[in-house]
Each structure stands twice: as structure tokens, then as C-alpha cells.
Design goal:
The complex is a heterodimer of chains A (155) and B (280). Chain A is of the alpha+beta class and 155 residues long. Chain A has helices spanning 23-30, 86-94, 103-116, 122-128, 140-154; strands at residues 2-8, 11-17, 49-52, 55-58, 71-73. Chain A contains five helices and five strands. In chain A, a hairpin with a 2-residue loop joins strand 3 and strand 4 (55-58).
Chain lengths: 155, 280
């Protein structure tokens, strides 16, 4: 076991993790943050996306130990029922959610884009969301939701 | 399994010397390989906390890139866009944003997949690799390094890359099944020096054609010192098809790649022309 220190959703943690333990396993099993989903487990689908030190990563391809000394945001740190993040609000308004399994990863990719760029172009939105797969909705509504969230942010 | 997280190159080399540990760069390949059981390391030596390995700088007439610079950092670097356009292009299309944020140039070489996106551009750009171990340091052309088996000694760390800044123009194109997240089925990088209407010092490298990316010296020679025109392009297309034919032999993918390479080669050249503003 190795000791790691990290900040998750603004809370500091010290954890003992196995060297081969992935970040997604530490988040879900040790911290009980089940909002982060495991889809393919091989970096293709983006369902496990979290924000690590201001960058989106696939938490199934990062070892927990690699995240030592990092600041992490999971979907639980983005918004909640009472005060959803603008991206979450737009997803609901547009109907960009069907089964919902990809949604946490989608929201984190979109949030990270808007954190960095308040007025992204359509092309920039497309690139930012290109690492997240959805097997239900066909992307049109998802991209529209991100656009709406971006426009709301501008006001 | 032991896990090491050194904060300096010296410390990393000391650990590599004392323990049988596998270097861990971004982990986008290694973490997956560990999970599938393809790789079963007895120790991991995480290079992620050594800031000096992340540097991207111009020094000594070269673009120097630390082995732990990520594809995203390279793809956002003005220095890379200006001096190593083909590499910059490859960094835009590799994997997905999440993978680019984590995957590193050194890891791409260390893992050395046949389809490694960065290797054809680095070969075309004439990159040298800076290797270091407790035994000493070595600067070796990437084309030479790629002919070694095994690629690296157990204790040898990829310190970084040096790309000569020489005003050459370069371009890259890859064929994948779709735009994002696709493993390259075929990739081509080209670097040229254009003197008015003549093309000099042509370097062409191919990826996903055989076990490792390679530089075709014969193709470079054939295409150098000639007038830049349509006939030159067609000659290049025929030659590059011949090279793919020879490299792939009777492999199942050969009939497809032999034809497909002509389009990828044209696309790689087109990206140079549009970047440099020169008309063919």
C-alpha cells in the first residue's frame, strides 16, 4: 500500500492505495463517489472522465498513485439537484440525457471547456466532447446543451 | 508491487538501477496493459512528479521536448506549431482530449506501438532522442534507436527529444476509422525544404506499416533536389506505394494499405503546402 494525498471536490483526503489501483476504483470504492462511471475500462468511452488539475482525464487509465498531490473534481463536485451547474441545467432542458450513463463524463468535459473558454466555437465544443461516447442520444442534443450552457455563461 | 515516485531524474535513475521497475509515463497504455495482464511489472517508477521532464523549450538551435510533455501540452505549444508542424498536427488528432491530457511523448516512444502517432513526425523532422542511465548519456537519432531490439535497456530513461530548427516545412496525415479515438491504420509524415520551386532534403516516415514506424531513406533521396510540381507528387505516390508493398509483403492489410497510402501521402503533403502557402 502507498499513501497518497489528494483533494477531491474541495475536500482533502489521505488514502492508502494499492500500486495497481486505478483512480476510478479509489473514487468509487474508497470515497463512495459512485457518480463516476466505468464504461469500457480502456479509455475509449469517457464515461469515467474526471477533472484532474484542471484537465479532463479518463480515471480508468490513471493510477490512484499517479493522482497523488492532485486536485480532482468529480460529478459530485459540479452541482446538485438544488443548484445544478449551467451545463446540467441545459442537459435537462434540452433532453440530452437518455440512459444517463455517459452523462457525468459529458458534463465534466463540457464544464472543463467552459471553465477555460467562456465563448467556445462549435468546433471547439465538438473537439472538447470528442472523447465522450453516447450510445443513446446521437450527440445532437448533447452538443446543443453545451452550446446553450456556454451562451448562458456569456450573459 | 513496489511504487516509486521520484522528484528528480537522478533519483529516478538510482531507483531504476537498484530495483527492477517499469517506467510509468502517462499510463494510458501501461495501466491498460497491466489490467489485461499483458504487462506484469514487479515495480512501477512513476515519472509524473519530475517537472524538468515536462519542459518544451528552444535551446541550442533545437526544439527540446522533455519525455513527460503531454500530447495536449505539445498541441497547445506555439513553439511546436512553428518548428515541428507535423508533430503539432499529430498531437491534435491522437486519441481524445482526455488521452492527450495524460499521454506523453516519451511514453509513446517507450510503448512503441506500430501505430504510435508521434513517431512518423519525429522521424521526418530528424529528431534525436536523449537517453540517460546511471552508466551515462546518449543522444541517438530516433531512426537509429528504432532499429534496436530491445528498444531500451532496463535502466535507461528517455530524457527527451531534440528536433533541429532548420526552417523545414512538415506535414502529417493519418487514416483512422473515425476522427476521434481512432488508432491509426496508416500514418505518413513528410518534411521538406522548399527553395523557390525546388524541393530539397525530403524525409518521409510511415506509421502502422510493419512493426515499428520507419523513415524511408530511399524515398527521401528519390524525391529530393527536384522541381516541385504535379509530376513530382505523382512520382512520390508511386514510390510510397512501392515501399508499403515491400514492407507489408503478404499481410492481410497489404492490398488495402498499398492503395490507401497514396491518399494519406497526398494529404500529408497538402498540409505542408497549405501551411507554407506554397502552391504546387
Amino acid at each position: 500500500m502507498i499513501e497518497i494525498k489528494l483533494v477531491v471536490n474541495q475536500k482533502p483526503y489521505t488514502l492508502d492505495v494499492e500500486p495497481s489501483e486505478r483512480l476510478i476504483d479509489a473514487l468509487r470504492n474508497r470515497l463512495g463517489l459512485h457518480g463516476t462511471k466505468e464504461g469500457c475500462g480502456e479509455g475509449e468511452c469517457g464515461a469515467c472522465t474526471v477533472i484532474m488539475d484542471g484537465k479532463t482525464v479518463n480515471s480508468c487509465l490513471v493510477l490512484a498513485a499517479q493522482a497523488n498531490e492532485s486536485v480532482i473534481t468529480t460529478i459530485e463536485g459540479v452541482g446538485n439537484r438544488r443548484s445544478p451547474h449551467p451545463v446540467q441545467k441545459a442537459f435537462v432542458e434540452v433532453g440530452a440525457v437518455q440512459c444517463g450513463f455517459c452523462t457525468p463524463g459529458m458534463v465534466l468535459s463540457a464544464k472543463n471547456l467552459l471553465d477555460k473558454k467562456s465563448k467556445p466555437s462549435d468546433a471547439e465544443i465538438g473537439i472538447a466532447m470528442s472523447g465522450n461516447l453516447c450510445r443513446c442520444t446521437g450527440y445532437d442534443k448533447i452538443l446543443r446543451a453545451v452550446k446553450i450552457a456556454a451562451e448562458e455563461g456569456k450573459e | 508491487m513496489k511504487y516509486f515516485q521520484p522528484h528528480s531524474v537522478e533519483e529516478a535513475l538510482e531507483i531504476a538501477h537498484r530495483y527492477e521497475a517499469t517506467f510509468l509515463a502517462g499510463g494510458t497504455d501501461l495501466v491498460l496493459h497491466m489490467r489485461t495482464g499483458k504487462v506484469q511489472p514487479t515495480g512501477l517508477l512513476d515519472l509524473g512528479k519530475i517537472p524538468v521532464l515536462r519542459e518544451i523549450k528552444e535551446f541550442d538551435g533545437c526544439l527540446q521536448i522533455g519525455s513527460m510533455a503531454t500530447f495536449a501540452e505539445l498541441g497547445n505549444s506555439e513553439l511546436v506549431a512553428q518548428n515541428a508542424y507535423a508533430l503539432w498536427q499529430a498531437c491534435q488528432s491522437m486519441g481524445s482530449p482526455q488521452i492527450r491530457n495524460q499521454a506523453t511523448l516519451g511514453g509513446n516512444l517507450g510503448n512503441c506501438s506500430p501505430a504510435a502517432d508521434s513517431l512518423p513526425p519525429l522521424l521526418a523532422l530528424g529528431a534525436e532522442v536523449h537517453l540517460i542511465s546511471q552508466e551515462g548519456e546518449e543522444i541517438v537519432p530516433l531512426s537509429t534507436l528504432l532499429s534496436r531490439i530491445p528498444l531500451l535497456g532496463q535502466e535507461t530513461l528517455i530524457r527527451g527529444f531534440r528536433i533541429p530548427i532548420n526552417g523545414r516545412q512538415s506535414g502529417f496525415a493519418k487514416l483512422g476509422r473515425r476522427r476521434a479515438l481512432a488508432i491509426a491504420r496508416l500514418s505518413v509524415a513528410v518534411a521538406v525544404e522548399i527553395n523557390e520551386t525546388r524541393v530539397e532534403n525530403v524525409r518521409v516516415a510511415l506509421g502502422a506499416v510493419g512493426r515499428r514506424a520507419f523513415l524511408s531513406e530511399s524515398l527521401g533521396r528519390e524525391l529530393s533536389g527536384q522541381e516541385l510540381n504535379g509530376a513530382w507528387l505523382e512520382k512520390g505516390v508511386l514510390e510510397v506505394q512501392q515501399i508499403v508493398r515491400e514492407a507489408l509483403g503478404t499481410r492481410a492489410s497489404a492490398p488495402y494499405k498499398r492503395v490507401a497510402v497514396s491518399g494519406v501521402f497526398r494529404e500529408a503533403l497538402a498540409s505542408i503546402i497549405s501551411e507554407g502557402g506554397t502552391q504546387v
